[in-house]
Amino acid sequence: MKLFKWTGPLEDAGNLPEEARASLMNNDEEVLVLQEAKTTTLNNAVEYDILDQSGDLPSGRFAVLNNIPVTEEGRETFEQRFNNRARLIEAEPGFVAIRVLRPVHSGTYVILTMWEDEESFKNWQESQAYGKAHAKRGTQDGVDQRPNIFQDLLLSQHIKNKYK
């Protein structure tokens, strides 16, 4: 299964079946469309392989997309890290879905989480489970400290769903 990410004016999103997508407003003029499918009719959509998943994307109202540039030689280590994650986030109040996405045509992975609302996401960031899930970050055991894993850019997008 693939996930296609597309951003643009709402009127250019096309007629995808409602059950096949999650549509969220990025601002008053742009919409983010996430479609899980084998192929897409969305022009210029960014294609990802789904490495790991839990939950139902269209049920979410607040999306967080962590864009993580990974070097070619760091892909195996990065993917192994997420394949062996503790899966604590799934038990958090307000959690809806997660997708770990491998880029098909670039080096930037996306960790996509969907939440009931922004407050649920912020509560997760302040939780003991978050601390445990990120406990190795910045230590010599952390994947972020290994050479040749990450490129120099890390972006996070927070997008609210104004349609639901």
UniProtKB/TrEMBL annotation:
<keyword id="KW-0560">Oxidoreductase</keyword>
<feature type="domain" description="ABM">
    <location>
        <begin position="62"/>
        <end position="150"/>
    </location>
</feature>
<dbReference type="InterPro" id="IPR007138">
    <property type="entry name" value="ABM_dom"/>
</dbReference>
<keyword id="KW-0503">Monooxygenase</keyword>
<protein>
    <submittedName>
        <fullName>Heme-degrading monooxygenase HmoB</fullName>
    </submittedName>
</protein>
<dbReference type="Pfam" id="PF03992">
    <property type="entry name" value="ABM"/>
</dbReference>
<dbReference type="InterPro" id="IPR011008">
    <property type="entry name" value="Dimeric_a/b-barrel"/>
</dbReference>
<dbReference type="InterPro" id="IPR050404">
    <property type="entry name" value="Heme-degrading_MO"/>
</dbReference>
<dbReference type="GO" id="GO:0004497">
    <property type="term" value="F:monooxygenase activity"/>
</dbReference>
